[in-house]
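3.2 Worked example (two chains)
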Amino acid sequence: MPRGERDRIERIDELYGFLNQSHISPKNVGRLEILAQHADSGVRQLANLLLEVARVKPYKRRRWKFLAQKRPSLFVRLKALCDDDLPDEAPDSLADPELPF
């Protein structure tokens, strides 16, 4: 596999790892800022999205529910980007019956 393709896959895996962490630390935010400057547009897009999530809700507890309630546009973008890899606690949609709005 070419080096560029391998690097892209490794960076995408690294970014999904940030999303699964219980806390996106300031050190992780620094890494996301570096990855937001990556040569591959897909990596840049995902890094910028996760950087926005980290700034809004760095802790994993109720992250998906919080985003669906307080930041629906961010929730929709995040859901569209990683629809196949959604965690179990993620609401199915903004009209989830568990959400009080």
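3.2.1 Second chain
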Amino acid sequence: MKGRAELTVFCDGGARGNPGPGAAGCVIKDVAENTRLLCGKYLGNVTNNQAEYAAVQLALQTIRESYKNREKINFFLDSKLVVNQLSGLYKVKNPDLRKIVFEIRQLESAFKQVYYQHIGREKNAEADSLVNKAIDEKRDFEIEVKRDN
């Protein structure tokens, strides 16, 4: 039952111009069911940091709505700032980001364990491609991919 309770999430966010047109993307992997949910959200004019946080927010909202009885979420992000702020290692000084972090904390409370880990950009290519797709198409999307065993 351990696998059913756990999800792995890769998140990314970006803005072209900083600030500029931005988007959030996430890949939610459910190993137990052998599925991936690919999400993208067009954000309009935002900073890179706002987009990075929006990706975490998007993932948590999607998990809360689409997955039941999940207890542990392992996040992987290429933004060291966001990982360290959400892990409590760095303070969040920007008032706009503080508001987003508060909303993320509310979403996190629905789960027993939420972990954030920094990874290199090369390991986050799929989430990055979802960001670019959302910016290019200026639209939100959700795509479920089921793999056969």
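3.3 Remarks
The chain has a mean pLDDT of 94.
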